[in-house]
């Protein structure tokens, strides 16, 4: 099945996308949910840690109340995202270390492994031009 904006396919979602999906304004959440549609969602097993850290930052920065951050966290952890063990991604992520953070490289490695598209709010990942997979940058 082809991947890209018009095909469901396989999507690897990073923490920026998940946080926007569960904590952004309703219009932005609806746009992201529409893009994700019926795609099969995947992420490295580090995703929940990154999401929790980002939500903590939003709470500490006053952008979310404690109740909003807790609700967003529960929502994020309930999303149907298949988490993949780091051990399967570590070697490729390490190979990308000159151009990407280890965290970002893990998402790229998974998208490459699955033949999917990486959905991210981080333009730097696409700008690195080292990924062997499609990268779709969404406005967060």
pLDDT below 50 for ≥5 consecutive residues: which ranges? 1-6
CATH T-level topology: Rossmann fold
The succession of helices and strands, N to C, reads EHHEHHEHHEHE
What's the number of domains? 1
Largest beta-sheet characterization: 5 strands, parallel
Gyration radius, in Å: 14 Å
Write a compact overview of the structure shown.
By secondary structure, the chain is α/β, with parallel strands linked by helices.
Description:
- By secondary structure, the protein is α/β, with parallel strands linked by helices.
- It has one domain (10-137): 5'-nuclease (Rossmann fold).
- It contains seven helices and five strands; from the N terminus they run βααβααβααβαβ.
- The protein has helices at residues 15-23, 26-36, 47-60, 66-78, 90-95, 102-114, 123-127, and strands at residues 10-13, 40-44, 81-84, 117-120, 135-137.
- A five-stranded parallel sheet has the order 3-2-1-4-5.
- α7 links the parallel β4 (117-120) and β5.
- α1 (15-23) crosses α2 (26-36), α1 packs across α4 (66-78) and α3 packs antiparallel against α4 (66-78).
- It is globular and about 40 Å long.
